[in-house]
Amino acid sequence: MEGSVRSVSKISVVISYIILIGYTIATLFPFTWAVLISLTPITYTDAQGIEKGVNIFDWPPRLRLFPKPSAFGVPLTFQNFKLIFEVVPLYKRWLMNTIIYAGLLTVGNIILNSLGGYAFARLNFPLKNFWFTMFLATMMVPGQVTLIPQYNLLVKYGLVNTYTGLFLPKLTNVFGLFL
């Protein structure tokens, strides 16, 4: 009897590992593919339409990036990154905006959510349970419902088309506070 429990346990562990390895490969493959394609010289891909002034928003897309069979074993290069900065003049601005936005929101969320979470976990203050319940209740409201009221507030305070208006609504969130 004891041997069958062990064998079932070993079989379940093996099956679990097979599933986890399959999931890991399925998750990492697109990322690895994107990194390798970005570092593959342009002559070894079937990219079409790469020239100055190309509209990256064309539909159907003219840029197809699949390696040719001869691309395997080719030395990798950063030339494609230089090319994107030359072809799309606003790319530097877009990249900097993304880095600033992600960095400030990450730091802001870590600081503010940690402080709020600590207050709810360790401190006693009046109406603590009421406020915690209200925060949890707001997690049940879909984000789409709050888009127009948030926009109206940003217009009212003159924060439309400003960095402050971009950061302020997302600077903290209830899920991070609850976590």
UniProtKB/TrEMBL annotation:
SUPFAM superfamilies: MetI-like (SSF161098). The chain crosses the membrane at residues 12-36, 99-121, 130-151. One of its GO terms (cellular component) is plasma membrane. Keywords: Cell membrane, Membrane, Transmembrane, Transmembrane helix, Transport. InterPro entries: MetI-like_sf (IPR035906). It comes from the Bacteria. It is found in: Cell membrane. The keyword Glycoprotein does not apply. It is a multi-pass membrane protein. Coiled coil: none annotated. This is Carbohydrate ABC transporter permease. It comes from Fervidobacterium pennivorans.
